[in-house]
């Protein structure tokens, strides 16, 4: 079994830091909630690398919100529910679509410069959206612009203390409440931090897979430490694979935004044939899971490792203007988006599940909140609608701050000593273990799954669990045990759900089964795998 705490410590002998609110992680969730809560409280913001290392920074497409007079919250709600394949929490979706526009205005107030046309926000359309409602910045660099604006404000905020390059190891809990966390400093020493509220903004689990659009820091730390602390983890089987990441020798798996297809790009197999009509009536703008599996089927049928995305029939000026980042990036590898078909393949992109929260971002552990990709608010269901992730972070970030402002003071006295016999981990094994884990997840718990593969994958993962009995000191070791925890959770959830829905596809149960499986999977450290009804009206 995965232990409650992964390192030894004695709170009496550790340096202690007290603050009002602890925010763990950066990205739009961490930056936005930090700025909001700092209006009334002292905030300690802890990032394991820097303010600029998060998935948000790489978000190209944009942020979905009802801005146009032709659009309505009801349209946005409907699109979200359809993409979520019956597992969305309808109350959470209502919150998102009605409060999203105000959240966008807050981003503008904080200095985010969204693209405009004729004095109005420039809106585009993405897969499975019925209306143009995606705001973007600098064409295809929306995330970077949001992070730029918010990070600048955070760095100049006197109410914020910023700890870059610090690693949060475990959450400290007592009597069903979260009191703080154990943190490892850059020099390897440790400190106990205590706060009235703790917000996990730690992002997703993209590094579970060998091919991913996620940065190196996406190792599921928040989900893993919340699980160890007793939080309910929900819907971990739903991992969204982005259909179109650059697949070219020597190039990282760079995201080719869904907005490229939104602006008219075609998908072609290596024979040059458009193929999406064989898979879905919405063609290239079908939901992401459908497009990703279609691409894998075409790759298998043509014995290729990629397909092409083709926007050469659109105006070169439009392509360069609308997608400057993608255009310039591809040029570095000798690929011209305006004249060449670009080789692409699916890559792990987004985690729909996470730490279960209520409509104010609070988990089942009092004073512990989760925001952004680390959370499971119920908005995304079995398949996230494009560009809803940034909206979710600001909408629920605001609600978390509203709840924290009502919290009574915590009595922060806590004594705890963890002292277990732990043996030394052999040097140099973590990189090998991580690569082995990533390959295993691609093979057994990737885009297509079945019982035999999932059972084999789970068995191999569980063979790695003795690492928890070792003395873990380096960041890479701590990241690996978090990845291992999340890999076990994802595989267990995928094994329990005997149907195909959204981003979870079982070849041995290829049909969606609403009678038996229109419910969430839950995982809790003491209780194991469970189920929960969907709040769907």
From TrEMBL:
Its EC number is 1.4.3.16. It is found in: Cytoplasm. The keyword Oxidoreductase applies. Pathway: Cofactor biosynthesis; NAD(+) biosynthesis; iminoaspartate from L-aspartate (oxidase route): step 1/1. InterPro entries: FAD-dep_OxRdtase_2_FAD-bd, FAD/NAD-bd_sf, Fum_R/Succ_DH_flav-like_C_sf, Fum_Rdtase/Succ_DH_flav-like_C, NadB, Succ_DH/fumarate_Rdtase_cat_sf. Residues 20-390 form the FAD-dependent oxidoreductase 2 FAD-binding domain. The keyword Oxidoreductase applies. It holds the Pfam family FAD_binding_2. GO terms for cellular component: cytoplasm. One of its GO terms (molecular function) is L-aspartate oxidase activity. It catalyses: L-aspartate + O2 = iminosuccinate + H2O2. It comes from the Bacteria. SUPFAM superfamilies: FAD/NAD(P)-binding domain, Succinate dehydrogenase/fumarate reductase flavoprotein C-terminal domain, Succinate dehydrogenase/fumarate reductase flavoprotein, catalytic domain. Residues 434-535 form the Fumarate reductase/succinate dehydrogenase flavoprotein-like C-terminal domain. Its cofactor is FAD. Catalyzes the oxidation of L-aspartate to iminoaspartate. NCBIfam families: nadB, PRK07512.1. PANTHER family: L-ASPARTATE OXIDASE, L-ASPARTATE OXIDASE, CHLOROPLASTIC. This is L-aspartate oxidase. The gene is nadB.
């Amino acid at each position: 079994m995965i232990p409650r705490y992964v390192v030894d410590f004695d709170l009496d002998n550790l340096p202690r830091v007290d603050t009002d609110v602890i925010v763990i992680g950066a990205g739009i969730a961490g930056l936005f909630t930090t700025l909001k809560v700092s209006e009334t409280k002292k905030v300690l913001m802890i990032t394991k690398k820097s303010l600029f290392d998060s998935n948000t920074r790489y978000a190209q497409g944009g942020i979905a919100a009802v801005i146009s007079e032709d659009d309505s919250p009801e349209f946005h709600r409907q699109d979200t529910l359809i993409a979520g394949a019956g597992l969305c929490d309808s109350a959470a979706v209502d919150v998102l679509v009605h409060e999203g526009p105000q959240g966008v205005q807050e981003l503008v107030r904080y200095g985010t410069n969204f693209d405009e046309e004729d004095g109005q926000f420039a809106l585009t359309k993405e897969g499975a959206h019925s209306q143009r409602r995606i705001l973007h910045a600098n064409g295809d660099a929306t995330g970077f612009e949001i992070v730029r604006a918010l990070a600048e404000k955070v760095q100049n905020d006197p109410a914020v203390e910023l700890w870059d390059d610090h690693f949060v190891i475990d959450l400290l809990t007592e009597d069903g409440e979260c009191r703080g966390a154990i943190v490892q400093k850059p020099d390897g020493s440790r400190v106990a931090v205590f706060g009235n509220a703790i917000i996990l903004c730690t992002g997703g689990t993209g590094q579970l897979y060998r091919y991913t659009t996620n940065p190196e820091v996406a190792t599921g730390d928040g989900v893993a430490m919340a699980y160890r602390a007793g939080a309910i983890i929900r819907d971990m089987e739903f991992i969204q694979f982005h259909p179109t990441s650059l697949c070219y020798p020597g190039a990282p798996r760079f995201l080719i935004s869904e907005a490229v297809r939104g602006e008219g790009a075609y998908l072609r197999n290596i024979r040059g044939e458009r193929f999406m009509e064989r898979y879905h009536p919405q063609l290239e703008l079908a939901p992401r899971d459908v497009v990703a599996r279609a691409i894998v089927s075409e790759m298998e049928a043509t014995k290729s490792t990629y397909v092409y995305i083709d926007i050469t029939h659109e105006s070169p000026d439009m392509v360069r203007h609308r997608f400057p980042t993608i255009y310039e990036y591809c040029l570095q590898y000798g690929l011209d988006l305006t004249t060449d078909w670009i080789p692409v393949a699916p890559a792990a992109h987004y985690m729909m599940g996470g730490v279960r929260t209520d409509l104010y971002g609070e988990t089942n552990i009092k004073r512990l909140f989760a925001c952004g990709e680390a959370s499971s608010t119920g908005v995304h269901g079995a398949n996230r609608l494009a560009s809803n992730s940034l909206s979710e972070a600001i909408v629920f970030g605001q609600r978390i701050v509203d709840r924290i402002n009502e919290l009574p003071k915590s009595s922060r006295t806590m004594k705890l000593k963890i002292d277990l016999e732990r043996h030394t981990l052999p040097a140099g094994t973590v990189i090998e273990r991580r690569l082995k884990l990533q390959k295993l997840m691609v093979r057994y718990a990737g885009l297509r799954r079945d019982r035999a593969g999932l059972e084999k994958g789970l068995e191999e993962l569980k063979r790695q669990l003795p690492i928890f009995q070792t003395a873990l000191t380096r960041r890479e070791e701590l990241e690996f045990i978090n990845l291992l925890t999340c890999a076990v959770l994802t595989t267990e959830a995928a094994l329990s759900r005997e149907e195909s829905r959204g981003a979870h596809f079982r070849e041995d149960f290829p049909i969606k089964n609403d009678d038996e499986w229109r419910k969430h999977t839950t995982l809790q450290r003491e209780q194991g795998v469970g189920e929960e009804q969907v709040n769907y009206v």
